[in-house]
Design a protein that fits this description.
The chain is mainly β. The chain is globular. The protein is built from 1 helix and 11 strands, in the order αβββββββββββ. About 4% of the residues have low confidence. The protein has one domain: Jelly Rolls. Bound molecules: calcium ion. The site of calcium ion has 6 residues, from loops.
């Protein structure tokens, strides 16, 4: 009997209750594994809680980088970070859990953060506008948050559309 139950027990242990499968972009947890983006070409991903998704976009000095991130469902609970070619943080969400507040982000001069398609408490998407102060590779990180008491890991499905304006 134990011989037949063991594989099942291993499967349960490896897959926490409620955890959802990763997307095909994994592994993409840091700058060395960043998914390269092409302006105007959307990608769809799933942010699983505590599993950062990192994207890279090349941009020339003087242009504006736009990351539009539309919600496709599940727990809409992301925190965003943008770093410049020199590693400087240009945008960083500082909120904890799902409680996004207007004063919780750190922004470099000229950086804008917009909520899209807001209906009541529902946020349809987000737009980050970042002036490119230098030519190079910019990194966007999407990190799914949780709630104080969530019993299973949160996930969020999104569509990321990069632009260089
Ligand atoms: Ca990841």
């Amino acid at each position: 009997m134990w011989r037949t139950l063991l594989p099942l027990a291993l499967l349960v242990a490896a897959c926490p209750r409620g955890a959802r499968p990763d997307d095909a972009l994994e592994p993409n947890d840091d700058a060395s594994q960043a998914t390269p983006l092409t302006p105007g070409q959307p990608v769809e991903g799933r942010a699983n809680q505590d599993n950062p998704d990192v994207f890279s976009l090349e941009a020339p000095e003087g242009r504006t980088i736009v990351f539009q991130v539309d919600s496709l469902g599940l727990e809409n609970c992301p925190a965003f970070t943008v770093a410049g070619p020199d590693g400087a943080l240009l945008y960083e969400d500082r909120h904890h859990f799902c409680n996004r507040g207007p004063a919780d982000a750190v922004k470099a001069p000229g950086v804008e953060f917009l909520l899209l398609n807001v209906q009541g408490h529902e946020i349809g998407g987000y737009e980050l506008r970042v002036p490119a102060q230098q030519t190079g590779r910019y990194l966007l990180t999407i990190l799914e948050q949780g709630r104080v008491d969530n019993l299973f890991p949160f996930s969020w499905d999104y569509r990321l559309t990069p632009r260089v304006e």
